[in-house]
Amino acid sequence: MMKFYILTSDHFTNLLRHNSPKYSNIPKEDMVIVINSLNKDYVKKAEKYCKDVGIEYYITESNGTPAKGKNSVLDLFLASDNDYCVMIDGDDFLTQYGVEYYKSLENKKIVPDALCLRNGMSIQDKEGKSILVSLRAKDKKFDFEEFKTSYKKKHDATEEQTLKATEDVKKMYETQERLSEKNQTFTRVTWLSKKAAKYTFDEDLVIGEDAIQFLKLKNAAVKNRLKFYTLDESIPTYIYDHRTLGTVKKETKESTDFDWINSYIKKLKIMDSKNELHENTYLREYKVICP
User: Fold this and answer.
1) In this structure, are residues 73 and 87 in contact, taking their beta carbons and an 8 Å threshold?
2) Cys-Cys crosslink for 209: which of 54, 67, 199, 273, Cβ 3.0 to 4.6 Å?
């Protein structure tokens, strides 16, 4: 049996989308809502909603970081009778195709331990309109000179601030180019078996915890400990909502502070010392047609 685990900490209207016929339309009996927030008013509001509509829910201890909330999801899943889970950030949402896709997976001949998304889609604001944007990295090299010029103009930054931001971003892109999947900077893990759910999120990181967990799973797959695949989102199963003020935007001060990259790089160096990183190595693609 599998269930959809929705982690929520804020933005009540976004929480309503998962059960809405206009959005994901996940059956109530297939949902588990995990409320992980420091906002007591929001916790009460989300709890009341779950009680009113009859959705299984849990309130877990929060320290304000995404990793703490995500680990609480893994703990609940591991303690449950469910065999598989789909992890959903409460501000994002599944397409209805995605709901049917994931529901069909456990009955396939090859059932993955974990799936991560390639070529995903996001909703972004552009000139006052909400548009769908592909997250596929461009085949051409990242233009750091263009970034430098744009950053300085957009943030009215000094030369010193601009150079620091450019160097930090360059370090991150070059690192991810070696370690992530082809044409991807970061990939989101959605589907997990209980075997894969034992690979937790690093609670020392406020940003980048998803990437570290992905690399842990990738290391296990390369060493034949897990069946971990990529899923091409040519037909989207998952939509990122980049219109809300999430942790990344808050912590980076709207993309002006990239100090988090150095903390992330330090974690990678530790993994590298343990031979847990695999440069220019790609996961197999999951090509099973569903539903």
Assistant:
1) yes
2) 67
pLDDT tens-digit series, residues 113-149: 999 999 998 888 877 777 777 777 655 567 788 888 8
Separate counts of helices (H) and strands (E) for the chain? 9, 12
Cβ atoms of residues 283 and 116 within 8 Å: yes
Tokens 């006052």 belong to 128
Per-residue pLDDT reduced to its tens digit, 160-198: 888 888 888 888 888 988 999 988 888 899 999 999 999
Cα–Cα distance between 25 and 235 in angstroms, integer? 17
**Alpha carbons 203 and 71: distance in angstroms, whole number:** 8
Strand partners, 4: 31, 86
Task: Give the residue-averaged pLDDT of 229-257.
Answer: 76
- Tell me how far apart the alpha carbons of residues 287 and 284 are, in angstroms, rounded to a whole number: 9
Q: How far apart are CA 249 and CA 92, in angstroms?
A: 15
Determine the pLDDT at residue 126.
76
The predicted pLDDT at position 94 comes to: 98
Question: What is the average pLDDT across 246-255?
Answer: 53
Q: How many CB atoms lie within 10 A of CB 236?
A: 19
